[in-house]
């Protein structure tokens, strides 16, 4: 008689028995009535695993639906493999490139395919056919040298480049209906789990749309993001020029001793972009507008350094920048709005005294001297400490804060007087052609390093707070990003290589017995694909110095 293995199921808050070698999928089917949902993956000892995971020892298991963050990632990865399988069936010579998240979906180009409405509709129909057949995603693991040959046979050169530079002995991969691929995380048990999606023509490619988080029974509606698309496209063109579009290419650059050159070129691109924005602002200023520059962006996008570098460029255009911090216009803590958990919601627009802020701005624009408030974060009250501001001939006001693009922030200010800049780390580097680098992961790693080095916060604490930060961004920042007069992409092609050692060291301190370990482990796995790049090549004015330290700017 087989020995029973006790598993602690956190969903049910009790132990359940498993047979040795039984998979999580088989166990979940036995528990389906009690679970009340169909899981797409599971968290095993606080690590996300596919449901094909076999059990041989006691474990703690939490089954996850596709509506949870880890489940959403599994759902989208699995959709991507279905898309690859469909394209390979209909257009065998076409090459899929999953580029980045955009317009509530995932933008992809297909080399060798025009992506006409008829072609996209045919691919979508083939995906639906594969889903209706409920074909299993089969996980395998072989010597990396064998997997490289499989991918070379399928002309997946970006995967070959990555595996040849990472040097793992064994590599996991998946097959779907006989076609091989790799995804850097778990896939669903079978295609039948991905019934809800849409695929539409978009620009030169296609947009893959997952379920709507607000209503998972239907695909999300695309959101027009013309300016965001252009910001991504401009950087993708730069990637092609320097010959580094994926992690394998970056790793080869490091191995060949070219990292310093890449850093210099990437930093020069940043400087050129900021100079262009400065020139545009200056032109509007000389035409009688743009007296106030509002710089906005999500957490860890590099707003502060961007503002300081923009100020320098404006000075070279013979303007005199002066700065105001939005944080100093917080209302007193006793009247600060609270979020759904009851905590103070400092990310809400209404945590600011909008009436006072607009009144002061209008007075400043009239040429009056205005006494500036200071918010005391210890007492939670506004104070006046003798700071004042007056705009003189050639002066321009720079205001950095997350709400800069929200029309309600400056509702009482003449539109001609405003120039809005949106800053975000729009990561254009891919792991390989089927696996993109999420912009949110780039920003989260920046924040983990900065919070640890300068704010006394552990990676565990930063990861725990991140979902709340993201909810605030979705509500207060992202809906207004297309209001920008200019977009600045603060990502740097080399930065994940520089952050690798810093990030891995900090993430290793997250204990195994906390829920945040799952995210810490995932980020460590992600960083493992990068070869380290020495920070000594990063200049003191780099946006990356805002997070790593060593900046020549004062924060």
Report on the structure:
The chain has 555 residues and is α+β, with helices and mostly antiparallel strands. The protein contains 16 helices and 23 strands. The protein has helices at 24-30, 32-35, 69-90, 117-132, 144-153, 157-166, 226-242, 247-255, 259-286, 303-316, 354-365, 439-454, 459-476, 495-507, 517-527, 545-548; strands spanning 4-9, 14-19, 41-44, 47-49, 59-64, 95-102, 105-111, 138-143, 170-176, 179-181, 198-202, 205-209, 211-212, 215-219, 292-296, 320-325, 370-376, 381-389, 395-400, 418-424, 430-432, 435-436, 486-489. The protein has a five-stranded mixed beta sheet with strand order 2-1-5-3-4, with helices on both faces. It has a five-stranded parallel beta sheet with strand order 16-19-15-20-23. Strand 3 and strand 4 (47-49) form a beta hairpin. It is globular, with a radius of gyration of 25 Å. It starts with a strand and ends in a 7-residue tail after the last helix. The mean pLDDT is 94.
Walk me through the topology.
Blueprint: E1 4-9, E2 14-19, H1 24-30, H2 32-35, E3 41-44, E4 47-49, E5 59-64, H3 69-90, E6 95-102, E7 105-111, H4 117-132, E8 138-143, H5 144-153, H6 157-166, E9 170-176, E10 179-181, E11 198-202, E12 205-209, E13 211-212, E14 215-219, H7 226-242, H8 247-255, H9 259-286, E15 292-296, H10 303-316, E16 320-325, H11 354-365, E17 370-376, E18 381-389, E19 395-400, E20 418-424, E21 430-432, E22 435-436, H12 439-454, H13 459-476, E23 486-489, H14 495-507, H15 517-527, H16 545-548
Parallel strand pairs: 1-5, 15-19, 15-20, 16-19, 20-23
Antiparallel strand pairs: 1-2, 3-4, 3-5, 6-7, 7-12, 8-9, 9-10, 11-12, 13-14, 17-18, 21-22
Helix pairs in contact: 3-4, 5-6, 6-8, 9-10, 12-13, 12-14, 14-15
């Amino acid at each position: 008689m087989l020995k029973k293995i006790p598993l602690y199921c956190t969903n049910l808050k009790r132990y359940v028995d498993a047979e040795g070698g039984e998979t999580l999928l088989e166990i979940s089917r036995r528990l389906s009535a009690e679970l009340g949902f169909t899981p797409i993956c599971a968290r095993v000892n606080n690590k996300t695993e596919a449901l094909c995971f076999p059990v041989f020892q006691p474990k703690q298991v939490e089954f996850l639906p596709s509506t949870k963050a880890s489940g959403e990632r599994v759902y989208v990865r699995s959709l991507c493999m279905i898309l690859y399988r469909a394209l390979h069936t209909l257009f065998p010579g076409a090459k899929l490139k999953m580029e980045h998240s955009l317009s509530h979906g995932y933008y992809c180009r297909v080399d060798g395919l025009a992506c006409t409405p008829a072609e996209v509709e045919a691919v979508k129909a083939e995906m639906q056919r594969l889903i209706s057949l409920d074909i299993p995603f089969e996980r395998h693991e072989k010597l990396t040298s064998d997997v490289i040959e499989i991918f070379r046979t399928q002309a997946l050169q970006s995967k070959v480049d990555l595996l040849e530079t990472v040097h793992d002995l064994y590599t996991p991969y998946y097959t779907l209906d006989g076609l091989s691929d790799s995804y850097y995380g778990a896939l669903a048990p079978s295609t039948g789990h991905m019934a809800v999606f849409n695929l539409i023509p978009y620009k030169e490619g296609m947009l893959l749309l997952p379920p709507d988080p607000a209503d998972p029974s239907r695909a999300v509606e695309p959101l027009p993001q013309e300016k965001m698309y252009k910001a991504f496209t401009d950087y993708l063109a730069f990637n092609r020029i320097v010959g580094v579009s994926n992690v394998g290419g970056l790793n080869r650059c490091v191995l060949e001793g070219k990292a310093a050159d890449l850093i210099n070129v990437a930093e020069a691109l940043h400087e050129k972009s900021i100079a262009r924005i400065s020139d545009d602002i200056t032109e509007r200023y000389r035409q009688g507008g743009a007296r106030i520059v509002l710089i906005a962006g999500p957490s860890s996008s590099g707003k502060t350094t961007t503002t300081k570098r923009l100020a320098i460029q404006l000075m070279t255009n013979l303007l005199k920048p002066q700065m105001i911090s939005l944080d100093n216009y917080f209302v007193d803590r006793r009247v600060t709005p609270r979020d759904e958990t009851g905590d103070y919601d400092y990310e809400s627009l209404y945590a600011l005294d909008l009436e006072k802020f607009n009144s002061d701005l209008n007075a400043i624009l009239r040429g009056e001297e205005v006494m500036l408030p200071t918010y005391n974060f210890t007492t939670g009250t506004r104070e006046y400490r003798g700071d004042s501001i007056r705009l003189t001939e050639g002066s321009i006001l720079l205001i950095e804060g997350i709400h800069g693009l929200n029309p309600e922030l400056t509702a009482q200010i003449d539109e001609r007087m405003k120039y809005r800049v949106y800053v975000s780390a729009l990561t254009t580097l891919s792991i390989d052609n089927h696996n993109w680098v999420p912009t949110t992961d780039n920003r989260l790693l920046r924040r983990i390093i900065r919070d640890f080095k300068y704010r006394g916060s552990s990676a565990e604490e930063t990861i725990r707070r991140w979902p709340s930060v993201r909810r605030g961004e979705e509500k207060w920042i992202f809906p207004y990003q297309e209001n920008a007069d200019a977009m600045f992409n603060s990502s740097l092609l080399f930065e994940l290589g520089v952050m690798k050692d810093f990030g891995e060291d900090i993430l290793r301190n997250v204990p195994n017995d906390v829920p945040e370990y799952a995210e810490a482990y995932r980020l460590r796995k992600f960083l493992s694909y990068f070869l380290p790049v020495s920070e000594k090549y990063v200049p003191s004015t780099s946006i990356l110095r805002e997070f790593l330290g060593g900046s020549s700017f004062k924060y």
